[in-house]
Amino acid sequence: MSGKRSAGLLLYRITESGGTEVLIGHMGGPFWAGRTRAAWSIPKGEYGPDETPEHAAAREFEEEVGHPAPDGPRVPLGETRQSGGKTVTVWAIEADFDPAVAVSGTFTMEWPRGSGEEREFPELDRLAWFPLDEAVELLVSGQRIFLGRLAVHIADRADDEA
């Protein structure tokens, strides 16, 4: 395996009106503070050659959200290569989750830069449900493709049930 690889889980739910909402997280740390558009992410993270992408997706969900990944069928949304070269693989799970109970893992970085002082920040500083059309604007651009793939899956499922 060459290059960095990341895997994640995208929770979605169908609303009473028939719309689709997805659960995404606002990235923590000083770079993302005060930003809204293109500052949200699918709960995901990097993994090495000794871990499967699906296992990494579940592990990262638990690390970033503070709760185990929900049970249920995982819908493969495929992978994409982001502009920085990282390959991201995502699965969707239809499930409900209360963002208020999320407890994000943290990371440490020097802040302010050049100060020599290490500070801890949450990986995701908040988690929220958004309709697909709003989530497209909020997600970092390299992850938006997964929303389109999820929409196709939901439309195909609706056709199968009709």
Summary tags:
162 residues, alpha+beta, seven-stranded mixed sheet, two-stranded antiparallel ribbon, 3 helices, 23% helix, globular
Short description:
With 162 residues, this protein is an alpha+beta fold.
Please state the CA-atom Rg, rounded to the nearest Å.
16 Å
* Helix share bin: 10-25%
Q: How can the largest sheet be summarized?
A: 7 strands, mixed
Tell me, briefly, the overall form.
globular
Q: Mean pLDDT score, rounded? A: 94
Terminal Cα separation, in Å?
42 Å
Order of helices and strands: EEEEHEEEEEHH
The overall strand count is 9
Unreliable stretches: none
Which structural class fits the helix and strand makeup? alpha+beta
Strand content: 35-45%
Total helices: the number is 3
3D structure, described in words:
The chain is an alpha+beta fold and 162 residues long. The chain is 23% helix and 35% strand. It is built from three helices and nine strands. The strands form two sheets. Strands 1, 2, 3, 4, 5, 6 and 9 form a seven-stranded mixed β-sheet that branches. Strand 1 and strand 2 (20-27) form a beta hairpin. The longest helix is centred in the C-terminal third of the chain and has 18 residues, at 144-161. It starts with a strand and ends with a helix. The relative contact order is 0.26.
Layout of helices and strands, plus pairs?
Elements: E1 5-14, E2 20-27, E3 40-41, E4 44-47, H1 53-65, E5 75-81, E6 87-94, E7 106-110, E8 118-122, E9 124-131, H2 132-138, H3 144-161
Parallel strand pairs: 1-6
Antiparallel strand pairs: 1-2, 1-4, 2-3, 2-9, 5-6, 7-8
